[in-house]
UniProtKB/TrEMBL annotation, chain A:
Organism: Chitinophaga dinghuensis
GO BP annotations listed: regulation of translation
Full protein name: Anti-sigma-K factor rskA
Transmembrane segments: 123-143
PANTHER family according to UniProt: ANTI-SIGMA-K FACTOR RSKA
From TrEMBL, chain B:
Transcription keyword on record: yes
One of the protein's GO biological processes: DNA-templated transcription initiation
PANTHER family (UniProt xref): RNA POLYMERASE ECF-TYPE SIGMA FACTO, RNA POLYMERASE SIGMA FACTOR SIGZ
Ranges where the RNA polymerase sigma-70 region domain occurs: 27-93, 133-177
Listed InterPro entries: RNA_pol_sigma-70-like (IPR039425), RNA_pol_sigma-70_dom (IPR014284), RNA_pol_sigma70_r2 (IPR007627), RNA_pol_sigma70_r4 (IPR007630), RNA_pol_sigma_r2 (IPR013325), RNA_pol_sigma_r3/r4-like (IPR013324), WH-like_DNA-bd_sf (IPR036388)
Record-stated family: Belongs to the sigma-70 factor family. ECF subfamily.
A Pfam family reported for this protein in Swiss-Prot or TrEMBL: Sigma70_r2
GO molecular function terms attached to this record: DNA binding; sigma factor activity
Keywords per UniProt: DNA-binding, Sigma factor, Transcription, Transcription regulation
Domain of life: Bacteria
Protein name: RNA polymerase sigma-70 factor (ECF subfamily)
Amino acid sequence: MDINRYISSGVLESYVYGLLPDEEHSEVEAIVLRYPEVRLVVNNLQQQLEDFVHNYAVTPPPALKAQLLDMIHNESTPEGEALLPEELRLNTHMVSNQKAAPPPAAFTAIPGKKKARDRIWKYLAAACILILVISASINLFLLKDSTDYKGRYQRLIAAQQKIDADKSLESNQTASFRETEGDESLMNDPAVIWVKTSGYGHHNAGAASLGWDKKSREVYFINWQLPEPPENKQFHIWSVSDHQLQDAGMPEINRSNTGKLQHMRRVIENPKAFVITLEPKGDSTGPDDAEIFQTAKFK
Amino acid sequence: MGATFTYTEAELVQGLKARDEKIFSYLYDHYSPALYGVALKVITDETTAGDVLQEVFVKIWRSIDKYDASKGRLFTWMLNIARNTAIDSLRSKAYKLEQKITDVNNHALMYEPQMAVHLQVDHLGLSKAVELLQKEQRIIIDLAYFKGCTQEEIAKVLDIPLGTVKTRMRNAIMQLRGLLKQQL
């Protein structure tokens, strides 16, 4: 076994920090016992973990200690046992007996003999109540059913209106895409990955769509809802990959180009995400001082 | 005035085995802040973390015979009990994986260095060493140690190949080692 390679594989760090599944954990334990040099590394890592968690130390509420000492002091008595968390109790039967609710109080004795007349009245009263309940349920059912027709009718109208609205939106959008034949085909090109943006902070989700062509590495942008920027500001698209920022260019945002495809800059590194920011005009140093509007994650 | 006693690790273990409540009290005074800190980091709710801490110390008291010095120091053993109890409590409270991943995803977004500028993440009580740890490194340690995520979950959350998780973990811990040394 190449011990140095094993040590540098990262498995020991994962072991000490509790990341390994059970079988792998036992494997490492066996190796630790067998190889002193591995054990030394593990000891150092454990020491380091201890130093690390001390960074998070917080003094617990003072009352906890007294309760705890009480628990362990009285642990051999039923009262002390009852203070312990359930799964830590040794004599659960003792506690459960102790804590068991007293048997229910005896019911008042019912006289053995009842007059027959009393019984008849009771049966009659019970039958009346039953009939009343059934009648009330039927009425309720019928009432609900009739109001349900109204609800269904309203839902149908709403659905029809939505379909009409969607149709008109679709026709508007296709009209804008038709302006260039090539752009339309980009929407269906399998080499182009399209993602709808997510809103960042209080900004609406789906305000834009971003596409990235795996072959040409070109970025495409379609604005749906981004507002026109103030005069001294501009929107900027950044591609993020392994914490590297790439400038994907500045889209034009105005009423006339909403829903139209814009060709942005090419980004060479595979993007993991895109960020759309609003920044002061002429500032292309990075989004540090900019406000993030939209983000889009690429798988 | 009471004199301050210090005990060696072997004395502590012996004392616990002998059911010495004074030793237990000493152990609590010296180690409860660190263990409570771990519980709080996992669970965040103070009441539940307090319950976890009590459970941890009862477990230590009752299971001291199971402590195996060949596997590590007493504190490491206690730390494992604290972390595992806290994570069990977290799971038993029906925190689903989706919830965890959503939380962490939000964290992951915060930890993007470009975006971190815009978020005022408060890390009260953390030493500079931990603060200096790169966000990416900190998140992998947080996920593994404090949230009890598996390698698969970490790979999914950070969107990295499964095989990369261990090496990332190693890098993170190596960086942490350097920072802790500077701190000491």
